[in-house]
Design goal:
By secondary structure, the chain is α/β, with parallel strands linked by helices. The chain folds into 3 domains: 91 residues, Rossmann fold; 205 residues, UDP-N-acetylmuramoyl-L-alanine:D-glutamate ligase (3-Layer(aba) Sandwich); 135 residues, Mur ligase, C-terminal domain (Protein-Tyrosine Phosphatase, Chain A), CATH 3.90.190. Strands 8-7-9-6-12-13-14-15-16-17 form a 10-stranded mixed beta sheet, sandwiched between helices. The protein has a 6-stranded mixed beta sheet with strand order 18-19-23-20-21-22, with helices on both faces. Strand 1, helix 1 and strand 2 form a beta-alpha-beta unit. The radius of gyration is 22 Å and the shape is globular. It starts with a strand and ends with a helix. Pathway: Cell wall biogenesis; peptidoglycan recycling. Keywords: ATP-binding, Cell cycle, Cell division, Cell shape, Cell wall biogenesis/degradation, Ligase, Magnesium, Nucleotide-binding, Peptidoglycan synthesis. GO terms for molecular function: ATP binding; UDP-N-acetylmuramate-L-alanyl-gamma-D-glutamyl-meso-2,6-diaminoheptanedioate ligase activity. InterPro entries: Mpl, Mur-like_cat_sf, Mur_ligase_C, Mur_ligase_C_dom_sf, Mur_ligase_cen, Mur_ligase_N, MurCDEF_pg_biosynth.
């Protein structure tokens, strides 16, 4: 069996490629954007990745072509597949039919925190000796890979609401049929495919409809959008998490969220870990509740999370030069930006935080978050905004709202030179983008070393 994956370097499709290879299938792939960490993982798995989308990549014809959701009509490889009548399928459908069928699927969904919560849940199960399979849209540091088949029926999957493929406009997660479902939160995002929050809620309700009555839905106590979605109809028990007044609660022992007590029906346990922020405490509650559903005790889950390292590109310390720390974070939505900065500020209130932001997501490029973006940087001491030529709207209004603490640059090189010149010992440089940002992290570290 030979499958060829179009869009193989996306986090989801790359993980799928690794799972297929683990099943003994010959896997090749094409992509226009090849960069770490996924390119490294694919190479290590022995998967040949071809640059671009050329017809010859599909010659001789594979047994099946798996389409990533970035593929569109007009793409040369897509048109070749259709014209030649080659068999093809979406990534989520292939996963459902070849990996998830017959397994206890534990799906983590929501606008924010999916990758981190999925990683926590997989690690809790691993720590408990349950050897789960998983497919996560990032690289959990405790595993060093984003996907594996696992040795038991349990499979943890990051359940993305983005659409499935150009020929299947349902959200990807509709294919997964989870028995345990986490809905972390729900906000408007992905404006390129959803008209409004209501459209997102309808897709989430499709997901809720697939959870069996003997399963479990886990969600926050007071999220109106989630409550409205569940009110459309839910046939599954619900457990909620919150600071108080819920089945699962957490009491902070430190303001930055690096230590807290989790409680559930008389069971209590403390967690001391390296993660920061209330959002990560909430992620932990969701992961612990999900693990509890398959038999992991609160105490054992707390022990696991105390040994949880984190996820690449989620407030990941990329390096430190002369006392200047450079962090990488995937935040690209105003809520995620604000919570990431708040967690870092609570941990080090005396430290100067310079937030360096690339508005790169499709929703950002459309200007959907213009009204709330400036407020997301409230706790940053300095803000650097990257005005990419492809952005399509000016960041000047955001800069004006932020005042003197914000500056706009139109080149990565100018940003690197500026922060290297103006940063001092003890400062934090927080780089936020959902892409590679032209390798800015290593460029900043290299320039700091030169200085």
């Amino acid at each position: 069996m030979h499958i060829h994956i179009l869009g193989v370097c996306g986090t989801f499709m790359g993980g799928l490629a690794i799972l297929a290879r683990s099943l003994g299938i010959k896997v090749t792939g094409s992509d226009a954007n090849v960069y770490p960490p996924m390119s490294d993982q694919l190479a290590a798995a022995g998967i040949e990745v071809m640059q671009g989308y050329l017809e010859e990549h599909l010659q001789p014809a594979p047994d099946l072509v798996v389409m990533g959701n970035a593929m569109t009509r007009g793409n040369a490889a897509v048109e070749y597949v259709l014209n030649q009548g080659l068999p093809y399928v979406s990534g989520p459908q292939w996963l459902a039919e070849n990996v998830l069928r017959g397994r206890w699927v534990m799906a983590v969904s929501g606008t924010h925190g999916k990758t981190t919560t999925s990683s926590m849940l997989a690690w809790i199960l691993e720590y408990a000796g349950m050897q789960p399979g998983f497919l996560i849209g990032g690289v959990p540091e405790n595993f060093g890979c984003s996907a594996r088949l696992g040795e038991t029926p349990f499979f943890v999957i990051e359940a993305d609401e983005y659409d499935t493929a150009f020929f299947d406009k349902r959200s990807k997660f509709v294919h997964y049929l989870p028995r345990t479902l986490v809905i972390n939160n729900m906000e408007f995002d992905h404006a390129d495919i959803f008209a409004d929050l209501g459209a997102i809620q309808r897709q989430f309700h499709h997901l809720v409809r697939t959870v069996p009555s003997e399963g479990l839905v886990i969600c926050p106590h007071n999220n109106n959008a989630i409550n409205q979605t569940l009110a459309m109809g839910c046939w599954t028990p619900i457990q909620r998490f919150a600071a108080t007044d819920a089945e699962w609660t957490a009491k902070l022992l430190t303001e930055d969220g690096s230590a807290f007590v989790v409680a559930h029906k008389g069971e209590q346990a403390q967690i001391h870990w390296g993660l920061l922020g209330q959002h990560n405490v909430d992620n932990a509650l969701a992961a612990i509740a999900a693990a509890h559903h398959v038999g992991v005790t609160v105490q054992h889950a707390a022990e696991a999370l105390s040994a949880f390292v984190g996820v690449k590109r989620r407030l990941e310390l990329r390096g430190e030069v002369a006392g200047i720390r450079v962090y990488d974070d995937f935040a690209h939505h105003p809520t995620a930006i604000a919570t990431t900065i708040a967690g870092l500020k609570a941990h080090s209130p005396e430290v100067k935080i310079t937030a360096i932001f690339e508005p790169r997501s499709n929703t950002m490029k459309m200007g959907v978050h213009q009204e709330t973006l400036a407020g997301a940087f409230a706790q940053a001491d300095q803000v650097i905004l990257y005005q990419d030529a492809q952005l399509g709207w000016s960041l000047s209004a955001i800069q004006k709202q932020l005042g003197e603490k914000a500056q706009i640059f139109d080149s990565v090189e100018a940003i690197v030179e500026h922060v290297a010149t103006h940063s001092q010992q003890g400062d934090c440089l927080l780089i936020m983008s959902n892409g590679g940002f032209a390798g800015i992290h290593e460029k900043v570290l290299h320039r700091l070393e030169q200085k």
